[in-house]
Specification:
The complex is a heterodimer.
Chain A: E1 2-3, E2 6-8, E3 12-26, H1 30-40, H2 47-50, E4 53-60, E5 71-78, H3 81-96, E6 103-106, E7 113-114, H4 116-120, E8 129-133, E9 136-143, E10 146-151, E11 154-169, H5 172-186, E12 192-193, E13 205-207, E14 216-218, E15 240-248, H6 251-265, E16 270-274, E17 285-288, H7 289-294
Helix pairs in contact in A: 1-3, 5-6
Chain B: E1 2-7, E2 14-15, H1 21-24, H2 29-34, E3 36-39, E4 42-45, H3 46-49, E5 50-55, E6 61-66, E7 71-72, E8 82-85, E9 101-104, E10 120-123, E11 146-149, E12 165-168, E13 184-191, E14 203-209, E15 217-222, H4 225-236, E16 250-255, E17 263-268
Parallel strand pairs in B: 1-6, 2-7, 6-8, 8-9, 9-10, 10-11, 11-12, 12-13, 13-14, 14-17
Antiparallel strand pairs in B: 1-5, 3-4, 15-16, 16-17
Classes of the chains: A alpha+beta, B mainly beta.
């Protein structure tokens, strides 16, 4: 299949079940809401080394947030419920709570909930209090600029992590322009995040390493500067590769994001777009690129 | 089913505690007409004191019109459905209410929503004393639910209130929030004397207030975010809220029973 002279490889992205939560973080201004949200989602690019994957999903206009202030939605994904709960607690208490004027609310309507706010409240050292509104409890924790409000219960659901696209381009400039175009298109889709820096990963990894104890290492087959030393997967004219990893709340959201990403990234300078998989042995979700594009 | 009762009993009081929407809406017309009702210590049949009209409706709804001001305990103990009163009601409306909606287009007497456990009471007019309070012998007052009063409330609003929300569009009498255990009372007018006396927890929020009791200690100013959560909810259910309350500072006073008490009174900082 070709789009704008870019070959779309007939392969699939292999993805995994993950547990997901969605936070609504608000503040007095859009800027402070974004700072709090970015801090909460900081250093959460891959479960390989960060315990969770997180990112900013979308801005929320003030009329749609619980307190009528500008906000951002943050999605968090982890391999197990326990890890997700731990990361939620850490990121709310260390990322959102200290951020000026911030507040943190549950953004996922799910029957299964973690009572993370109930733990965060202890920061109040006995001066905390709560209010129950519309059946939800909100903790008021005194802080030095007033009060930090955190919802007691955060919904969790089964999500999908590891949807991906791999862009092969003639040079680094063309590759990054295509990847940025893909990220811009994906950012319009609700229910997904691209957790890597700026949404783009330049270090696709393979499982294992020649060094003992390292669970993942550089995917040498995708590294253009060592193509003479390894069994390369790169077409001859490829000199730069970027991967875009997509985590989503459901299959439909990931499919929509991959479709938008492929269409946006199919531009001059790009040679082919493919996806990473392990032959279907590891992940329970397979996203076939051709099938996704045919459904559009 | 929508049941309309046009009441024409003119005596002193009519015990309306039989008006439970799911109970009445499950009855046929002859059964309704024979239903026994206590009026001024005498027993009447419902058909003798009202015109009964039945309409199809998905909701279980009872509409009370005509001479409603002698209704005592309307909606007390109701656990689902909706009661709409097109006029004033007497005492104990919505007492011990568990769920559902009680809408009163006029005024209500004393003890509105006492020991209420859930649901919504909405009044267009004024309410008497002890709104959402306790009844003699009970350990606490209102335990959950929402009471919305467009006008004013009498004395002891929210006495021993434990949970839930009372919103008063205008003023309160004396002793609002007395012995309050928790919950929230919003007063968009003026809070009366002795507000929050012996309160342990909970919040009284008001546009202005009579001089507070000495046990309340000034605790700064802030734009309290949790107020916005409530105000947005009130806007959502079409209760008129003062726009100037959004994003403005309130003075906070804490007290009152002892130094460890966590009750608070928030007064709009004009």
């Amino acid at each position: 299949m070709q789009i704008n002279n870019v070959t779309i490889v007939n392969t699939f992205a292999e993805a995994f079940d993950m547990w997901a939560a969605r936070l609504i973080i608000t503040a007095n201004t859009r800027k402070w809401a974004e700072i709090a949200a970015s801090t909460a989602a900081g250093l959460a690019v891959s479960v390989i080394g960060c315990n969770c994957e997180a990112g900013l999903e979308c801005p929320i206009p003030s009329h749609d947030t619980p307190d009528g202030r500008p906000g951002w939605a943050v999605l968090l994904f982890a391999r197990s419920k326990e890890e997700l709960e731990t990361e939620l607690f850490k990121r709310i208490s260390q990322g959102v709570l200290p951020s000026p004027t911030s507040a943190c609310y549950n953004g996922l309507n799910s029957p299964e909930k973690f009572l993370v706010g109930r733990k965060v409240r202890y920061f109040g050292d006995g001066y905390q209090s709560s209010k129950r509104i519309n059946g939800a409890r909100y903790w008021r924790i005194p802080v030095a600029d007033g009060e930090f409000i955190v919802e007691e219960a955060f919904g969790v659901t089964q999500g999908i992590g590891g949807g991906n696209l791999i862009i092969f381009a003639r040079n680094q400039r063309a590759a990054i322009q295509a990847a940025q175009a893909a990220i811009k298109a994906i950012s319009q889709i609700n229910g997904v995040i691209t957790p890597f820096p700026g949404g783009i990963c330049r270090s696709p990894s393979k499982i294992g390493s020649r060094y003992k104890g390292l669970i993942a290492s550089t995917n040498d087959a995708y590294c253009p500067t060592i193509r003479g030393q390894t069994a390369t997967m790169l077409p001859l004219e490829t000199n730069a590769v970027y991967e875009i990893v997509i985590d989503g709340l459901d299959r439909t959201a990931i499919e929509a994001a991959m479709r938008a990403g492929i269409l946006a990234a199919s531009r001059p300078g790009v040679i082919q777009i493919t996806a990473g998989n392990y032959g279907g042995r590891l992940g329970s979700h397979q996203f076939y690129l051709h099938q996704i594009l045919k459904e559009s | 089913m929508r049941l309309t009762l046009e009441l024409f009993f003119t005596g002193r009081e009519l015990d309306a505690s039989f008006i439970i929407p799911n109970r009445l809406c499950s009855m046929e017309l002859p059964e309704l007409q024979r239903l026994q009702v206590v009026c001024d210590d005498e027993i009447y049949q419902l058909g003798e004191i009202s015109h009964i009209k039945i309409q199809d409706c998905q909701q279980q709804e009872v509409i009370l019109c005509g001479n409603t001001n002698n209704l005592q305990g309307v909606g007390s103990g109701m656990d689902c459905g909706r009661i709409l009163v097109e006029g004033d009601v007497g005492n104990r409306a919505g007492a011990h209410m568990k769920c559902g909606e009680l809408i009163i287009l006029g005024n209500a007497g004393h003890c509105l929503g006492i020991v209420m456990q859930g649901g919504l009471i909405s009044i267009l007019g004024n309410a008497g004393d002890r709104v959402g309070g306790d009844q003699l012998g009970s350990q606490h007052g209102m335990n959950d639910g929402i009471i919305l009063i467009r006008g004013s409330a009498g004395d002891e609003a929210g006495r021993k209130m434990r949970r839930g929300l009372i919103v008063i569009g205008e003023n309160t009498g004396t002793y609002a929030g007395a012995d309050m255990i928790a919950g929230s009372i919003f007063v968009f007018g003026c809070l009366g004397d002795y507000a929050g006396i012996r309160m342990r927890r909970g919040s009284l929020v008001a546009e202005k207030s009579k001089p507070l009791l000495p046990g309340f200690r000034f605790s700064g100013f802030s734009d309290f975010l949790w107020l916005r959560l409530y105000l947005k909810k009130l806007q959502h259910i079409n209760f008129p809220v003062p726009e100037h309350w959004f994003g403005k500072s309130f003075q906070r006073f804490v007290g009152q029973s002892n130094i460890f008490a966590k009750g608070e009174i928030l007064i709009y900082d004009a």
